[in-house]
Amino acid sequence: MTYELTDFPQFEEVPQEQLDWLTEHLEIVEIPKGGYLFEKGSPIDHLTLVFEGDFELYFQQNNSRKSFGRIRKHDISGLLPYSRAKNAGGFAVAIQPAVIGTLNREKLHELIGKYYELTEVLVHEMNNRIRNITQIEVQNEKLIALGKLSAGLAHELNNPASAMVRSASLLQQHLKGLPADFKKVIKIRADDEAIDKINQFMYQKLEEKSSELSMLEQNTLEDDLYDWFSECSLEDRYDLVPLLVEYQFNTDDLLFVKSCLRDEDFNPVLKWIVQNMTTHKTVTDIKEASSRIETLVQSVKTYSYMDQSLDFQMVDIHTGIKSTLNVLNHKITKVGHKITTEFDENVPQIHGLPGELNQVWTNLIDNAIDALPKEGGELKVKTKAAGSFVYVFVEDNGHGISEEHLTRIFEPFFTTKEIGKGTGLGLDVAMKIIKQHNGQLKVTSQPGKTIFEVCLPINHNIEEENT
Fold first, then answer.
1. Where in this chain does the record put each Cyclic nucleotide-binding domain (predicted)?
2. In the CATH hierarchy, which top-level class contains the domain 5-114?
3. What is the pLDDT of residues 168-188, one digit of tens each?
């Protein structure tokens, strides 16, 4: 069977004599379904033309297969003019029987030297390949970043949401017991003065809760209350004492309440006080949890600038950094890392793109977190104003960046992370955004101290003179 190069739309403008030369030197190869066009590590030493078939591109990640594209009929692959690729980074497996034509490296050199139009087509294909790979990698970088943010938000939202569910359940159980106690409460005989004293005293305790007690102080107070309850032969001591301790009721407080009442009324009133404290504590817990959710939602809204203009505008970089830290908080706190911030109050707003700048803070802070040691990790974020410029420093006490890697760290696709954990575009994207603002991004590193320094002009039309 004859396979014609004129069937390839890419060769439409290539002179026939050049196609004849290519046809003469092609080696036709048949690949069965399940066979490989190339495997990871295979040398890239042939130009490949796909006459028939369809190949799935994939790489292995954590013992699983991840597809990232296709090579189809009439695609051009393999070695292309001026390409520096040496070995395949993944696999290409035939998902149907295929027929390919290959041209070895030596003949490709001859092609480049003699046939301009054919070379031009192949160079154009290489440019398309670079553009497609870049798009795939950028998309992967975005998906990885989105995955990290989504996981963090799910974790951060789950804690307060679970706390609200628990508190609501406890409150529901608590309210079920109120009818029985209410019978005793309505039998209480007390004048208005006594009622006002107890009410005022109780709400003062609820609203003016003192600083937290130490463990020793809590145990001492708990023992005193249990002893006092035993001497007074009061019931429900094991239900009442823990809440009384939390709100720091001591024996003098109980004696004060007791002095306002008849003896038979003291226990029902004390239970009523504890019930109010239980309700107050539960509602406070729900309020704090819902406030945390509100803060996270606001942080995401601020981080994404979802309801604001995407054009250059006046930006408070502290707001962006804080919202980024909120979004990434789970990564910082889940293993006990310490974070400190030193924000210069004199830092003015700058003229910039807030969403893009937040990408910079995310990439720098996320990389710093990944570099922290398993124990004793410390991340510092510092800002300062100097003249017409604002500086942001992101410092970690990780293992540092080797001198060999330090010279390449801002190169696109350069990464020291495992497959699936980074594409090597984070710092490249950060650098492009900083340059878009006429700023600078630098790094210094030694074991135990790596600092990324961002310099941004207050007005993006100003360029730094002292580099």
1. 10-129
2. mainly beta
3. 887 777 676 666 566 566 667
* Cα distance between residue 393 and residue 374, in whole Å: 22
The residue with tokens 């003098």 is 252
Q: What is the DSSP letter of 334?
A: T
Q: Are strands 64-72 and 46-61 parallel, antiparallel or unpaired?
A: antiparallel
pLDDT (tens digit per residue) in 37-69: 999 999 999 999 999 999 998 887 666 777 778
Domain extent listing, the chain: 5-114, 171-287, 309-457
- Computed on alpha carbons and rounded to an integer, the radius of gyration of the chain in Å comes to 35
Rounded Cα gap, residues 243 and 205, in angstroms: 12
Q: How far is CA 1 from CA 4, 28, 48, 96, 217, in A?
A: 10, 11, 18, 18, 93
Q: Say if strands 378-386 and 338-342 run parallel, antiparallel, or are unpaired.
A: parallel
CATH second-level architecture of 309-457? 2-Layer Sandwich (3.30)
pLDDT tens sequence across 290-306: 877 777 776 666 555 54
Give the pTM.
Answer: 0.48
Fold match flag (5-114 vs 309-457): no
Backbone angles phi, psi at 324, to 5 degrees: -65, -45
